[in-house]
Specification:
The chain is α/β, with parallel strands linked by helices. 28% of the residues lie in helices and 20% in strands. The protein contains twelve helices and 19 strands. The strands form five sheets. Strands 2-3-5-13-9-10-8-7 form an eight-stranded mixed sheet, covered by helices on one side. A three-stranded antiparallel sheet has the order 6-12-11. A three-stranded parallel sheet has the order 14-15-16, with helices on one face. A hairpin with a 4-residue loop joins strand 11 and strand 12. Helix 4 runs parallel beside helix 6 and helix 8 runs parallel beside helix 11. It catalyses: Hydrolysis of terminal non-reducing N-acetyl-D-hexosamine residues in N-acetyl-beta-D-hexosaminides.
């Protein structure tokens, strides 16, 4: 993964300035009405340390860390005590849009992002209330969560606002006079977000706070009141999948996307094609559908498949960034169109027909950029074996004819062709760190670099 939100077992939150405990991850404060616990990181000031230097919490402070704490740990969270809780009415629970904000059902026409939010409501109700409960167990339980969304037309992209606040209050009665039964009566749940995608993150957090109690057969939220204010530490939180070296069925990709939404990760980096195979059935160059398969079982994705995956991901608050690795991982192209490659069919080459080679690169990138709606398009550029051009007779002749002194210049020409194409199509090119190692500031200033080698 790249820029993952948090790593396991090595996170130390900056302590609340009010506490005197040096190693606390949670601090205790009290008021006249109730006690609460605070966990926050002061503007996401997370200390990442080696295991040997990691601060540890005392058992006293660890006891204030609730078992149903939201993950990833939010920027700020305060919560009540273990014995204060509310129950939810599984049979009638609903997410209700605040009419003072965006995404009301009466709004016409309904925006795409609002429609996605309503689908998320239905999806999470099935996810949260996964046990059948007797009707009597839901008496006096909370039956709705109020959601306020400020903007209805936000596009899911790199800079979308995913911040939210989530407040879960107990009964308004004085906590000192509540009986055990009354403590579980109706409170209220309020979500506020700038965009629908922030609201989706809030609903995910809410779902993690709700637990099924087997003894009472009720859905409960403990440690109320909860006050959570959260936003991502990284705006880009991705998982990379490779469907070329190992074909991934569409059902598997959907499962991965669903899992990403549970962890509030927001980018699926789809390494679509490589040397091993070209598993996209291009409509511009249909020969890829006959010669670029991973195996004889015709494992491909159609343009409709890609459109469906992109839409499925969007509905889960996940962007899909495609990767077509040019020019170092293109031998699968050669099987489909030999005239754009070296004689060994191992890498793209301008030698036989430079115009055709450039056309194929441009047309394929244009076709795919129309299917993937994200503003980022990854073009690889790593692991280019320039010796393949040095050993190809026709490429050597081409270099002499055009006064090209080094095969590294052919490498740069392909990188620039890919980047210029994506920029012309209105998207942002992304490349692996080797392009910077090799070409530095000669690259277009609009290129985003992604590191995978330490020496970069």
């Amino acid at each position: 993964t790249t820029n993952s939100i948090l790593t396991s077992n090595n996170i130390v939150f900056k302590k609340d300035p009010s506490t005197k405990e040096e190693d606390s991850i949670a601090t205790t404060t009290s008021s006249s009405s109730s006690s609460s616990n605070i966990l926050h990181d002061d503007d996401r000031d997370v200390r990442i340390k080696n295991g040997s230097n990691r601060s540890s919490s005392s058992s006293k402070n660890a006891s204030y860390y609730p078992y149903n704490m939201v993950w990833p740990l939010p920027q700020h969270a305060s919560f009540g005590t273990m014995d204060t809780s509310i129950c939810l009415d599984a049979s009638s629970f609903a997410f209700v849009i605040d009419e003072n904000g965006a995404c009301c059902r009466t709004a016409e026409p309904m925006s795409q992002s609002c429609s996605d939010l309503y689908e998320a409501f239905d999806r999470y109700k099935l996810l949260i209330f996964d046990h059948t409960v007797p009707s009597s167990s839901s008496n006096d339980c909370l039956s709705y969560a109020s959601i306020y969304v400020q903007h209805s037309n936000s596009k899911l992209d790199f800079d979308v606002d995913e911040s939210y606040s989530l407040t879960i209050a107990a009964s308004s009665s004085s906590s000192s006079t509540l009986s055990e039964h009354e403590k579980k009566k109706k409170g209220n749940i309020k979500i506020s977000a700038t965009t629908t995608y922030g609201a989706m993150r809030a609903i995910e957090s809410l779902s993690q706070l709700i637990r099924f109690q087997y003894t009472t057969k009720t859905f409960m939220i403990q440690h109320v009141p909860w006050h959570i204010h959260d936003k991502p530490r990284f705006v880009h939180r991705e998982l990379l999948i490779d469907s070329s070296r190992h074909f991934l069925p569409l059902s598997t990709i959907r499962s991965i996307i669903t899992s990403l939404s549970y962890a509030k990760m927001n980018v699926l980096h789809w390494h679509l094609v490589d040397d091993t195979s070209f598993p996209y059935c291009s409509e511009v160059y249909p020969q890829f559908c006959n010669m670029g398969e991973y195996s004889s079982s015709q494992e491909y994705y159609t343009r409709e498949d890609i459109v469906d995956i992109v839409a499925f991901a969007r509905k889960h608050g996940v962007r899909v960034m495609p990767e077509i690795d040019i020019p170092g991982h293109t031998s699968s192209w050669c099987r489909a169109i030999p005239d754009i490659c070296t004689a060994s069919k191992s890498i793209l080459s301008p030698a036989i027909n430079a115009t055709l080679t450039n056309q194929v690169v441009f047309n394929l990138l244009k076709e795919l950029s129309n299917l993937f709606t994200d503003s980022f398009f990854h073009l690889g550029g790593d692991e280019v074996q320039t010796v393949l051009w040095d050993e190809d007779i026709e490429t050597v002749k081409y270099m002499k004819l055009h006064n090209i002194s080094s095969s590294k210049d052919i490498y740069l020409d392909f990188v620039r062709l890919a980047h210029d194409t994506i920029l012309e199509l209105g998207k942002i090119p992304v490349g692996w760190g080797e392009i910077w190692t090799n070409f530095g500031s000669t690259l277009n200033g609009g290129v985003v670099l992604q590191k995978w080698l330490i020496q970069q």
